[in-house]
Amino acid sequence: MSASPEYPISEDLSLLAALRFLGRNKKTVSLTMIVAMLGGVVLAYTLAPKYRADVVVAPAEGGSSVGDLGGLGGLASLAGINIGGGTGKRTQEALEYLKSRIFASGFIQRHALLPVLFANKWDSRRSQWRDPADAPTMAEGVDKFIKRVTLVVDDKHTGMITLSVIWGDRIAAAEWANEMVAEADAALRERAITEQDRSVEYLKSEAAKTNTVEISNAISKLMETELKNAMVARTRDAYAFEVIDPAVPPDPKDRYSPNRPLIVAMAAFVGLILGVIIAAMRTRAAKPGREASLDAC
């Protein structure tokens, strides 16, 4: 079968032609690959290592419902009381709080992490920013902390939540992970206690206004539920997050990044591409006025 005049066989980039081209220019390609691989090795061993510390928690479910309250569902809602089926929602709220910017901001402030997050801009000797005009803001710190330092994964199948901290100091990474869970749990506990106390006060005021026995009894049930929830919040060790596997400092050799073998392999691939380009340009320059063909012998 004759070849199409628009695509002559002599111009087809076949595998055999490519191998012949590489064979003729193996010195150029090999040298370029070696140089690139050496650069990859230098880069892989120059980049500061980062470690990943994981803490695994389970939602600490709890709470109780008040049963049939007749028409007092609206009153319960006003008082901030969840009537049954609220544990899933509470778990999701706790998870979102753990990932929230407001919690990250508070954690950074409490532990004075801005100089740690932006160590290259901090003068530790003078305890001030090297360039006050270019000092990082809290918003920048929160953005870096959420996007590059922490990772929260919710496993829908097991219900487990994994909080990971990725940082250059492996001991600090484990400490931050455990402290974040503990502080988030404490904040959610305090918020719940405050809401329950406010709900009880509201119900007391409503009970004082009514003369109906049925309504008074229903309000008493609501108050009993809130008092039970408050007792649970105050006495239970884990309110929102129950730690299943606390974070421990990773082994010094257990680096999260850089992936040195991958960096060297990528450098070798880039070197191969550059070597082929350089060889093709040299072939073209050696044959002025003619198209350099990869399958020429």
Order of helices and strands: HHEHHHHEEHEEHHEH
Rg, Å, rounded: 32 Å
The total count of strands amounts to: 6
Tell me the fraction of residues in β-strands, as a range.
5-15%
Outline: elongated
Please tell me the overall pLDDT. 79
The share of residues in helices is 55-70%
Number of helices: 10
Q: Spans of 5+ residues with little confidence (pLDDT < 50)?
A: 1-5, 7-12, 63-76, 289-297
Kindly name the structural category: alpha+beta
| Number of spatially distinct domains | 2
Main β-sheet: number of strands, strand sense, barrel status? 4 strands, antiparallel
Euclidean distance between termini CA atoms: 24 Å
> How are the strands of the biggest sheet laid out side by side?
4-5-1-6
Describe, in plain words, how this protein is organized in 3D.
This protein is an alpha+beta fold and about 300 residues long. It folds into 2 domains: about 15-45 and about 260-285; about 50-245, no CATH class. Helix content is about 55%, strand content about 10%. The protein has helices at about 15-25, 25-45, 75-80, 85-100, 100-110, 115, 140-150, 170-210, 215-235, 260-285; strands spanning about 50-60, 120-125, 130, 150-155, 160-165, 240-245. The strands form 2 sheets. It has a 4-stranded antiparallel β-sheet with strand order 4-5-1-6. It has a two-stranded antiparallel sheet with strand order 2-3. Strand 2 (about 120-125) and strand 3 form a beta hairpin. The longest helix has about 40 residues, at about 170-210. The radius of gyration is 32 Å and the shape is elongated.
